[in-house]
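Sample intake — Type II secretion system protein E
Collected from: Planctopirus ephydatiae
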Amino acid sequence: MAVVTETAGDSRQRALQQELRELVDVVGPAPLVDLLLERSFQLNATDIHLDPTPTGLRIRLRVDGLLHDIIELPGEITSQIISRLKLMAGMNITEKRLSQDGHISGATLRASRDIRVGSGPTIHGERLVLRLMPDETVFTKVEDLGLNAHQLQLINGALKKPYGLLLCVGPVGSGKSTTTYALLDQLNSPHRSIVTLEDPVERRIESINQIQIDPRINFNFADALRGVLRQDPDVVMVGEIRDAETAHIACRAGLTGVRVLSTLHANDTAATIDVLREFGIPPMFIADAVNCIVSQRLVRKVCTHSREIYHPDEAECRYLDISPDFADTVDLVRGVPAPVNFGTGYSGRSAVFEVLPIDARLRHAILSETPVTQLRQIAIDEGLITLEKAGLQKVREGITTLDEVHRVLLSSII
């Protein structure tokens, strides 16, 4: 049995490999799968990848946004492991030619976290990816998200408006759902009727009506949103705006006295306007309906238990807007690879934000169909703290490193 060690020296990784090796030879697939899921939760993994190879089944865990090789299981037990997980997820174990989606409930696992399962064919056999959902009992407060004081003030101002859209944008895995739930938790009040439309419902929130979207019965976001708007809501959270129809209905809702929270895939705040334009939403609707756009990314935090302090070199000073003459007075931190941080020097993640309130000048520019590059420059002229600036500030504060900000934010511009 081949063992792959991407982060050599990590005792937690070796311990998991050793446990899996010992179980392979003495037990069936069920205890092996149970151990893998249990340890993955303990290691704060967000995803488990099970990829078939010519010789077996490669298992990787995504921790703090990066995949780590754990082990390659022998080929003779691959089909048993895949079938076991598909059974737990309520999937058709005989169908291996098409992609499937499944769900393992927390009740099945005797845990407070669910697992979403996706399968698909490859040239070497069937592949599974497991998304370990967040603990539904744990909520992050808005003030704990990682916003600076000015950004927090802008978001709180947008939340106080009686109607309009507040959009959280970014790529998959950037923390949009966590931010949206935090905003929703802040709005949660006995005096408000709050409804969410989600696919899936990731966290249960007391006193909020949560609706599960189900495409299998043609119950989509647009249909659900139409129905909810006839039920006297004060706040509606749409899990994701995926199509033009949902975008149009959400904008109309924001114009008719409803506060709407939603997520969208866009690179940054200004690019969100272009996405809405591509959905065919008239400029007047965009300008009047959208109150605030929040773009975000997740960066890994320097390990608090294994780190070192250093002074920036000339290139780092240039990126951080620090005079090289004062480099010796500036303390930056970087992680030291160790077992406690999975051999990476990082542990945990923090969000960096770009918060764009739609003010009078931007509304006029949107109505004038100003190109997105000019919209962004207008926002910067009015004091927008860009994702890049927010990331570099976290470097100066000793939260993350310049290498990490380059990896997540700056690779396309440096």
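Post-analysis note: DSSP finds 15 helices and 15 strands in the chain.
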